[in-house]
């Protein structure tokens, strides 16, 4: 066992520790492909093959000696901590036994000089690759070969045997909100959903990939299951009732890593340069740049990333307050992925820190919650008999890889001109309100009538109570009361009030077609549509080079605007509903008056747009890349929406006035609400 080694980098005089190698253990046999375990205070790993080692992550010197538990005759291949804290249970599995240990009792016996013993709950089940306690710690799921054994955690008894996979089962997890539900993945490249009490198979997926599925994680908050394979691919499936276990998103770690380097504005070489300030950084002259090897990114472990740590008032590196992130443990490094936009937030490669004892990991385990902003990571080497415990500073890791544009104190201001006045309830009105409220209220405001020129005072001999001898003879303004009321104006005002009703926030998205009409005598594609601001008119751009304006209820004869030499791609309304702007494939932009079918202005442009009233947010859609919600304040994608089919053709999107729903087109001739 070696002493801890500190690895750090320095950036502009600010020292930030990223990785601390707390402990290094040497085993007599390789421990490359085993299931490791971490919880809030302990880490469990096999040592010398059949010996179970429990390490306390506390900083007290009394905790620097691990607890050794002996009971297996063959090499330990799987470990797991119990779900409860009191008592804290540990399960270890090998080819000969599956043993449950009470950690508190074992610690007491070890302090008394006695040999700690566990409870054998399974015997000769075969090669065990994964174990997991049930939420109540009453049962243990043991993945041995192609089967899953449900064992009693208190005595040696097989409760249920789940059989159906065609290859070794690599992981299994309990669904906490669904009673008696267990989900498993296998080297047969599929996942299955079981009722572990009755042994019935509820659902089985198709073959997902050409590579074995290695890891599994259940997101309780979003009710999703996430699995990863040996080729760096991730799949997220919905577990909501009625979703039929549909795939929400498919993530390629290699592509996301390349996108991350491009997004941060730093190449891989630039990120590696940061580590040159590390105390233990040393270049390897034996390996020339042209001899670098590209390795795969097998997903060895998926774990929740605790982002509730205090990062400072100005150092909010996470994109959103409610955004959830995941740790992805691979053989070459660790990745933090955002579950809101499914993009990488940080990348930590082991070889970037040459002082680390392990450069290629065979197994990985991560702590679910951070302790004082630090996360523990347990690794075993793929090629050596080495086990290492790393302490990662999450805030320092995030800060070291942020874009230069977004680093605190270096941001460049971005100004966007609003296309219309602010709404009364807009949060941007707070500044102007504060300025108005700061004005003194005890000073009298003098209008034009109240102003007087400086002149000398004249006192008369007789002064009446009114003030002067004679009242000023001035004809004051008197309003005319004999005017007839203009009925047309009042009717127009009342109609506007009826038309401009507020959009009810509790409204649900429309799902039924109210009316359908034909816009042309022959089949013609509708390229774009846009409602006017009050929702009374609807503009349609057609592929036959014409622009039509309908009433919103699609009654009457539409107004036809002609003049483009190509299909109309985009159309927008002015805020007073008197002007239209259209863009066409003829690379021109035309402005129309709704009272005249001839263009009022002709411009040479290919695109047009109309910003929404959400000044900081906008949405985009791209072929094969889903729908993304962007924020101008952070200059990044905050949400990504999947579910519609979009492989070949661009699909349109629209947002409801309440901002709660998104309508998007799909290549299966349907409109979907998100």
TrEMBL record:
SMART domains according to UniProt: WD40
**Which residue intervals correspond to the WD repeats?**
162-204, 561-602
Q: List UniProt keywords, sorted A-Z.
A: WD repeat
Name this protein carries in UniProt: WD repeat domain 27
Native organism is Chelydra serpentina (Snapping turtle)
């Amino acid at each position: 066992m070696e002493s801890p080694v500190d690895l750090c980098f320095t950036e502009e005089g600010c020292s930030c520790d990223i990785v601390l190698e707390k402990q290094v253990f040497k085993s007599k046999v390789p421990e490359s492909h085993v299931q490791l375990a971490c919880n809030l205070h302990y880490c469990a790993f096999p040592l010398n093959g059949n010996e179970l080692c429990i390490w306390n992550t506390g900083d007290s010197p009394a905790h620097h000696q691990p607890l050794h538990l002996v009971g297996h005759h063959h090499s330990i291949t799987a470990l797991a901590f119990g779900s409860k804290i009191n008592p804290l249970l540990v399960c270890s599995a090998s080819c000969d036994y599956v043993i449950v240990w009470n950690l508190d009792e074992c610690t007491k016996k070890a302090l008394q000089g006695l040999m700690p013993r566990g409870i054998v709950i399974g015997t000769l089940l075969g090669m065990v690759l994964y174990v997991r306690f049930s939420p109540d710690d009453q049962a243990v799921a043991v993945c041995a070969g192609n089967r899953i054994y449900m064992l009693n955690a208190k005595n040696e008894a097989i409760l249920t045997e789940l059989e159906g996979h065609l290859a070794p089962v690599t992981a299994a997890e309990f669904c906490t909100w669904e009673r008696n539900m267990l989900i498993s993945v296998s080297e047969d490249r599929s996942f299955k959903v079981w009722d572990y009490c009755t042994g019935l198979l509820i659902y089985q997926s198709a073959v997902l990939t050409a590579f074995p599925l290695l890891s599994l994680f259940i997101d309780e908050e979003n009710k999703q299951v996430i699995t990863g394979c040996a080729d760096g691919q991730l799949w997220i499936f919905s577990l909501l009732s009625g979703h039929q276990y549909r795939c929400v998103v498919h993530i390629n770690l290699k592509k996301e890593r390349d996108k991350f380097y491009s997004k941060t504005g730093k190449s891989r070489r630039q990120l590696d340069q940061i580590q040159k300030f590390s105390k233990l950084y040393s270049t390897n002259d034996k390996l020339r740049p042209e001899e670098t090897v590209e390795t795969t990114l097998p997903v060895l472990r998926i774990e929740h990333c605790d982002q509730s740590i205090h990062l400072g008032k100005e150092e909010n590196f996470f994109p959103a307050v409610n955004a959830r992130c995941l740790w992805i443990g691979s053989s070459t490094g660790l990745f933090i992925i955002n579950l809101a936009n499914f993009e990488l937030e940080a990348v930590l490669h082991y070889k970037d820190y040459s002082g680390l004892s392990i450069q290629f990991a065979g197994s990985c385990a991560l702590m679910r919650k951070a302790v004082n902003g630090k996360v523990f990571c347990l690794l075993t080497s793929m090629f050596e008999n080495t086990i290492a415990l790393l302490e990662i500073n999450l805030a320092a890791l995030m800060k070291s890889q942020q874009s230069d544009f977004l680093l605190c104190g270096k941001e460049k201001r971005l100004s966007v001109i609003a296309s219309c006045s602010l709404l009364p309830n807009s949060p941007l009105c707070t500044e102007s309100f504060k300025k108005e409220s700061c004005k003194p209220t005890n000073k009298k405001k003098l209008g034009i009538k109240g102003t007087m020129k400086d002149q000398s005072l004249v006192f008369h001999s007789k002064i009446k109570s009114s003030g002067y001898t004679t009242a000023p003879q001035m004809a004051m303004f008197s309003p005319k009361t004999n005017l007839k009321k203009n009925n047309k104006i009042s009717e127009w005002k009342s109609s506007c009030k009826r038309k401009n009703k507020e959009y009810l926030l509790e409204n649900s998205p429309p799902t039924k077609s109210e009316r359908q009409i034909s816009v042309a005598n022959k089949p013609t594609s509708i390229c774009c549509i846009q409602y006017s601001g009050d929702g009374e008119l609807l503009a349609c751009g057609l592929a036959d080079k014409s622009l039509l304006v309908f009433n919103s209820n699609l009654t009457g004869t539409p107004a036809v605007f002609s003049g483009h030499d190509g299909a109309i791609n985009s159309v927008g309304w002015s805020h007073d509903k008197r002007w239209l702007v259209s863009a066409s494939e003829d690379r021109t932009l035309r402005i129309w008056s709704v009272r005249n079918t001839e263009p009022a202005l002709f411009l040479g442009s290919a695109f047009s747009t109309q910003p929404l009233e959400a000044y900081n947010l906008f949405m985009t859609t791209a072929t094969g890349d889903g729908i993304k919600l962007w924020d101008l304040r952070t200059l990044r994608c905050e949400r990504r929406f999947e579910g519609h089919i979009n492989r070949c053709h661009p699909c349109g999107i629209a947002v409801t006035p309440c901002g709660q729903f998104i309508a998007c087109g799909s290549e299966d001739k349907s409109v979907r609400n998100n």
